[in-house]
Amino acid sequence: MDRLEPLDRRLIERFQHGMPLCAEPYRAMAEALGCSEQALLDSLRRLQERDALSRIGPVFEHSRAGASTLVALAVPAERLEQVAARISQYPEVNHNYRREHAYNLWFVLTGPDRASLDRLLAEIETDTSLAPLDLPMEHSYRIDLGFSLENLP
Amino acid sequence: MSACTSRYDGALIRRLMELTQAGLPLVDNPWAWIGEQLGLDEQAVLDLLRQLQNDGAIRRIAAVPNHYRLGYRHNGMTVWDVDDAELPRLGPLLGAQPFVSHCYRRPRRDGWRYNLFAMVHGRSAEEIEAYRAQIRELLGEACRADEMLVSSRILKKTGLRI
């Protein structure tokens, strides 16, 4: 992607782990970065338009919003396109990645409770004639997502 | 409705998730805007957010970068067959590495021996290979086998759905 403007980069670096929880957060962020609130809002808009920022706001813990599990399918190469498209159609699927492995399709399944996941897994198995590998999270050792932006173009 | 009853109010939390999943509005006071939608005052919204964060239901309230767009185009799901007894020590050790974004224990299955998952991100294939080697060193003798599943294509990626 094109170079980030200095303010845009500083905004992400400074606030990717947390933003101020006060009455006028954008003003507080602007003060922290030494710019006007308008410049801060312009920067947020620019970052969102360029898709460099997914969004700003609360990030909810998936496992607390009901049930979820990581699922893998070993799809024969000639069926991969078709099965992948079919899986992506499920509204309960919120990530779907092709990976280089015998288990070549990986996705996250979410639902209100575990019973709903069991029903979906059975439906997927019937639908695709493939046995899904069901790998629910048992423990999380890290839930942060933050990277250094050093050396970025 | 007061914030102190909201801890168990699933409908309110769901509304809050719906209202914020596309991002906070770019208005002077986004918390007051959320409050208007939820029938809460601004202070109650801030209290609710802090409470959810303290409870772990909210990971963080932040500017969420799109790592792919920022140049982190390579991700590898590293999977490890680690001695169960060593997981309480090694899980947090892996999770603390700056290049690991997610680190989970998951069950073993027939035909699937790996119980520890660590997602690594980098700007090149070499970079994520180097991270895998670093993890292997950290795990040492406790690790019996490992693989790295690189993503060849993102087919669908959406935020949390409710």
From TrEMBL, chain A:
Membrane spanning residue stretches:
none
- Start and end residues of each Siroheme decarboxylase AsnC-like ligand binding domain: 67-135
Q: How does it assemble?
A: Probably forms a complex composed of NirD, NirL, NirG and NirH. All proteins are required for the total conversion of siroheme to didecarboxysiroheme.
**Cross-referenced Pfam families:** AsnC_trans_reg2 (PF17805), NirdL-like_HTH (PF22451)
GO MF terms on file? lyase activity
Q: Which Gene3D superfamilies match?
A: 3.30.70.3460, Winged helix-like DNA-binding domain superfamily/Winged helix DNA-binding domain (1.10.10.10)
Q: Tell me where in this chain the Siroheme decarboxylase NirL-like HTH domain is found.
A: 8-51
Query: Which keywords does this Swiss-Prot/TrEMBL entry list?
Result: Lyase
Q: In which pathway does it act?
A: Porphyrin-containing compound metabolism
Q: Show the catalytic activity.
A: siroheme + 2 H(+) = 12,18-didecarboxysiroheme + 2 CO2
Q: What does this protein do?
A: Involved in heme d1 biosynthesis. Catalyzes the decarboxylation of siroheme into didecarboxysiroheme.
PANTHER family according to UniProt:
SIROHEME DECARBOXYLASE NIRL SUBUNIT, TRANSCRIPTIONAL REGULATOR, ASNC FAMILY
The EC number on file is: 4.1.1.111
In the record, the note on similarity to other proteins reads:
Belongs to the Ahb/Nir family.
Extract the InterPro entries matched here.
AsnC_trans_reg2, HTH-Siroheme_Decarb, NirdL-like_HTH, WH-like_DNA-bd_sf
Q: What is this protein called?
A: siroheme decarboxylase
From TrEMBL, chain B:
Lyase in keyword set: yes
Keywords per UniProt: Lyase
Q: Name one GO molecular function term.
A: lyase activity
* Catalytic reaction equation(s): siroheme + 2 H(+) = 12,18-didecarboxysiroheme + 2 CO2
Q: Which domain of life is it from?
A: Bacteria
Q: Name the Pfam families on file.
A: AsnC_trans_reg2, NirdL-like_HTH
Q: What are the residue boundaries of the Siroheme decarboxylase AsnC-like ligand binding domain, all occurrences included?
A: 69-156
Where's the Siroheme decarboxylase NirL-like HTH domain?
14-59
- Give coiled-coil spans as residue ranges: none
Name the Enzyme Commission number(s) assigned to this protein: 4.1.1.111
Which pathway, metabolic or otherwise, does it act in?
Porphyrin-containing compound metabolism
Q: Does the keyword RNA-binding apply?
A: no
InterPro entries documented for this protein: AsnC_trans_reg2 (IPR040523), HTH-Siroheme_Decarb (IPR050684), NirdL-like_HTH (IPR053953)
What this chain does, per the entry, is described as: Involved in heme d1 biosynthesis. Catalyzes the decarboxylation of siroheme into didecarboxysiroheme.
The record's similarity note reads: Belongs to the Ahb/Nir family.
Task: Please describe the quaternary structure of this protein.
Answer: Probably forms a complex composed of NirD, NirL, NirG and NirH. All proteins are required for the total conversion of siroheme to didecarboxysiroheme.
Name of the protein this chain belongs to: siroheme decarboxylase
Q: What organism, scientifically named, is this protein from?
A: Pseudomonas flexibilis
